[in-house]
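BUG: 3D viewer hangs when loading the predicted structure for this chain

Environment: internal workstation, default settings.
Expected: structure renders.
Actual: progress bar stalls at 90%.

Input used:
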Amino acid sequence: MTDNPKPSHRVDVAFVGRANIDLTIHVPHRARPGRTAVGSSLTASAGGKSLNQAIAAARWGGRAALIANVGADTWGHQITTALADVDVDTHHVRLVPHATTGAAIIEVTPDGESYITLALSPATELTTDDIHRATAALATEAVIVQLDLPPEPVTTLLGHRRAPIVIGNLVPHPDLDPTLLAQLDVLVVNQHEAAAILRTATGNPLDAAAALQRLGPRTVVVTAGPSGAAFIHPHGSGTIPAPAVPVVDTTGAGDAFLGCLALDLARHTPLPDAITTAVHAGSRTVGHSGAHTTTPQIP
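Structure tokens produced before the viewer hung:
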């Protein structure tokens, strides 16, 4: 990556991953085999982990950019409009001609748990060229990459880092070189993702964080839903409790956590303080329906 043009856009955090449409329905229970469950009206809203995280960072007062592809269809335009409405930089959200935007089918049960099935759109997956173009044109303090993306763009991003802070999220793609995890400054996963990576369940998120750190990342944060989050970094470890709140919908809580965490780290907030703020942001999100809070979270 030599002879790149000087970056033309400066942001606090760039989010690299997927954007899709969330098709959400509230159900009294999940349908049993051979039976039909009748739920609420269907809602269609902009979603996807990276998009949700970018919106959270923007609503926390940060300058956020999203690097993702969507189809040049009705859903794709809905997504770019939703991002523009909250001032997320969309210079690197590419509308792919003749492609269908991906969708997530989300069932929310009365206890607030969300069950998500993602319908991927292969034509909109990020490529190495997308990464080269975006990183050449963006200057950012932190970059968040979804590790479940195809390995080529992730390898390109981690192998040619341009941001002071690189954060990885989700279970890595099975074909991603595991040694690349050592390129991460921070790995953020929930307890289920930690168990998938470690190939063993651990009831203590702090133990999971320590085991994940041995895979290479300098800092690891493991979120634990209503139990808060655990962390380990070169200067110590600890846990941050979550406030007790009524749960309406858990969709997007982890994304709100990560969007706020990334922004605070980009602003050089100490890790325990950044995690505390992020835990409260995630807790606030579960109190309403949908992946995004309806009002800004600027303190």
